[in-house]
Automatic annotation (TrEMBL):
GO cellular component, one term: plasma membrane
Keywords: Membrane, Transmembrane, Transmembrane helix
Membrane-crossing residue ranges in chain numbering: 45-69, 89-112, 133-154, 174-197, 204-225, 263-282
Organism: Nesterenkonia salmonea
Name this polypeptide is given: ABC transporter permease
MF term (GO), any: ABC-type transporter activity
Pfam families recorded: ABC2_membrane_2 (PF12679)
């Protein structure tokens, strides 16, 4: 009796490969698909709702405090721009929340294995990354715009001299736009960290370190080294200092280091975003999912 013996234990496993020469779907179709994925992700909605709710709550609390100070001491009232700046304090929480969404937007695909389906539909990896980035930008831009507008509305209703119509003031509108851009850029920073690390926990932790821990460490180092020039340069290039210089025209008044021009702050922020995005894209292009 003849039998055929197959040794499955030593069989060579099949590897997952993608033919990048295939055209796949178009960029717009890929972007629509990635946006649909964000909408289907429950975390997207939770983080977005918390972002708007927290931003509006903080705006109301700040406006109420300003109004109370103004009632007790007219010298503490402040001007419309200063009130508007303080009313956007919730944008700092929006950065960590929507930055975390940027991390999750890419790492979820690795944890579930869905990245293979995405690459099958869109074999061109850079096209896929561009579509994911565009979908993330549209989502976070919309959420941030809602938060900014509602925060302004509530702040202007509670605190004087800020009014609803001041949203068309050049300085205040420019500050709101800068705050909006900073949140969107931070979501892309999170996306780049997630792309590079492929770990939700790792990406979110590093994002938190960049936004909060690094600032404290450099402040301590600045004092320990007797205000060393090289530490001062690091503090100027630190992420949240760049955000403050981009958003707040009066940032230099309360900073330990000299203020930067707005364009310098934006260049610094773009570099912060570009580094993990570039490294993550290179890793994505050279390693299978």
């Amino acid at each position: 009796m003849n039998t055929t013996h197959i040794n499955t234990a030593t069989a060579t496993p099949r590897t997952f490969t993608i033919d990048s020469t295939l055209s796949g779907v178009s960029f717009l179709a890929a972007a629509r698909s990635e946006f649909a994925k964000l909408k289907a992700l429950r975390t997207s909605w939770w983080l977005s709702i918390i972002t708007v709710a927290l931003g509006v709550f903080i705006a109301g609390a700040v406006a109420f405090s300003f109004q109370q100070f103004a009632a007790d001491d007219s010298a503490m009232a402040g001007d419309a721009l200063q009130i508007a700046i303080q009313g956007q304090a919730g944008s700092y929480f929006a950065m960590i929340l929507l930055g975390s969404l940027g991390v999750i937007a890419i790492t979820t695909e690795y944890s579930t294995g869905a990245i293979r389906s995405s690459l099958t539909a869109v074999p061109q990896r850079f096209l896929l990354l561009s579509a994911k980035g565009l979908a993330l930008v549209i989502w976070t831009a919309a959420v941030t715009a809602v938060m900014v507008l509602l925060s302004h509305g509530l702040t202007s209703i509670i605190a004087e001299p800020l009014s609803l119509g001041d949203i068309f003031d050049a300085e205040i509108a420019g500050m709101y736009a800068a705050s909006w851009v900073s949140v969107v850029l931070t979501s892309l920073l999170g996306f780049g960290l997630g792309l590079l690390l492929r770990s939700s926990a790792g990406g979110i932790v590093i994002l938190a370190v960049i936004m909060f821990v690094l600032q404290m460490v450099l402040s301590i180092l600045y004092g320990v080294t007797g205000n060393a020039a090289w530490v001062e340069v690091l503090m100027q290039a630190e992420y949240m200092n760049l955000v403050d210089n981009a958003v707040n025209p009066n940032a230099g008044e309360f900073s330990m280091v000299p203020a930067l021009e707005a364009w310098q702050a934006y260049v610094g922020l773009l570099i912060w975003v570009a580094v993990p995005m570039t490294l993550g894209a290179l890793r994505f292009s050279h390693r299978d999912a």
